[in-house]
């Protein structure tokens, strides 16, 4: 066959063109349906992320807690300075223990963003709230959590959990271990709490 001779191309039939258009239209409608279902969710997630970052930046610009500036996480319960007390495995206590009946509501000592609601070996059920100045407020040995999740905003006084004895406190009188971490280092929370 000579090189300049063209092979005749058969035109698609009317029926095959209609089928092709219907398939493309169906795929386009399916894509639009998926986008319609995903976009509100994506938009909501993006909005939540932006709001959380804005709140985080605003918290970082606020002052760290000072002496007698924070309310107790367990109002009306006796506060004792147990900072530095000996603990198992040669550790020292990096917080204070506040004793109260099991299921007593634990209140956030500060406004902030919930960074953790979960478990660890020592603290058992724990909640961490990042507050003004980026200080981490650590609540451990909880019996249960309040209806909160990571990235939620809490205000001072909001309930974040309930007194228990989870983690390595199993079998001890119910209490909350309250710790404060500034730049990753534990500081004694006792002087920062208001005494009633």
UniProtKB/TrEMBL annotation:
The keyword Membrane appears for this protein: yes
Chain ranges passing through the membrane: 14-35
Gene3D superfamilies: Glucose Permease (Domain IIA) (2.70.70.10)
GO molecular function: hydrolase activity
Matches recorded under Pfam families: Peptidase_M23
EC number(s) per entry: 3.4.24.-
Keyword presence, Cell cycle: no
Key words, A-Z: Hydrolase, Membrane, Transmembrane, Transmembrane helix
PANTHER family reported for this sequence: PEPTIDASE M23 DOMAIN-CONTAINING PROTEIN, PEPTIDASE-RELATED
Record-given protein name: M23 family metallopeptidase
Lineage: Bacteria, Pseudomonadati, Pseudomonadota, Gammaproteobacteria, Moraxellales
